[in-house]
Design goal:
Mean pLDDT: 94
CATH class of the largest domain: Mainly Alpha
Order of helices and strands: EHEHEEHHHHHHHH
Radius of gyration: 18 Å
Number of strands: 4
Strand content: 5-15%
CATH topology of the largest domain: Glutathione S-transferase Yfyf (Class Pi), Chain A, domain 2
Structural class: alpha+beta
Shape: globular
Length: about 230
């Protein structure tokens, strides 16, 4: 299907979900690491001049940006091992919850992590846990969000077993409590045990350094505004 390149960074959960999709589809690709996102490479600026962000997929030299858009492109281009359900209604639901995961869960967890202790942090934690409660209901009665095999929504939620625990550590909080979310805990355990999934996960120490630096930066901005 032509040359495939992925411009990405190893610590980004948005980039890793694209890697998972490519590997699940059996697509060979070249990984081009964008090492310093504060000093973006000429290649990234050339092919993604609008957002200037990773991940960026290049297929036949044509760029596709934004992780969910890339996942859809991969699904439509390589038909093997379908990630989305075949039923139109189920496909629509998967897309809805994928968007929910980004809008509410990822950024909700990040909001809670970078808030300093106090009322704002407490409210952010409560809001993030409310979003996770919706996911808990979606996984009920299933091994994976995709059923017996991992699918589109599992890939999008795949940051939870690894990235979320790092956010919890650096943010001094606990969002995914086993007592509150037993089904998500079981799903996370099953998901992270899959060899193909594990091989793309960055070292925990690297993520800790990344998130600690990011949180320090966000808190310094908040302090300067006061």
């Amino acid at each position: 299907m032509g040359e495939v390149k992925l411009i990405a960074t190893t610590q980004s959960l948005f980039c890793t979900r694209v890697e998972w999709a490519l590997k699940l589809k059996g697509v060979e690709y070249e990984f081009i690491e964008e090492e310093d996102l504060r000093n973006k490479s000429p290649l990234l600026l050339k092919y993604n001049p609008v957002h200037k962000k990773v991940p960026l997929l290049l297929h036949h030299g044509k760029p596709i940006a934004e992780s969910l858009v890339i996942l859809e492109y991969i699904e439509e281009t390589w038909k093997e091992n379908p990630l989305l359900p075949q039923d139109p209604y189920e496909r629509a639901l998967a897309r809805f919850w994928a968007q929910f995961l980004g809008d509410k869960c990822v950024f909700g967890a990040w909001e809670a992590a970078h808030k300093a202790e106090g009322e704002e942090k407490t409210k952010a934690i409560e809001s993030a846990q409310e979003s996770l409660a919706f996911l808990e209901k979606q996984i009920a009665g299933k091994k994976y969000f995709g059923g017996e095999e991992i699918g589109f929504l599992d890939i999008v939620a795949g940051w939870i077993p690894h990235w979320l625990s790092v956010m919890e550590e650096v943010g001094g909080m606990k969002l995914l409590e086993a007592e509150k979310f037993p089904l998500l805990h079981e799903w996370a355990h099953n998901f992270i045990q899959i060899p193909l999934i594990r091989e793309c996960i960055p070292p925990r120490e690297k993520l800790l350094d990344y998130f600690n630096a990011s949180i320090s930066y966000m808190r310094s901005l908040a302090t300067n505004k006061q």
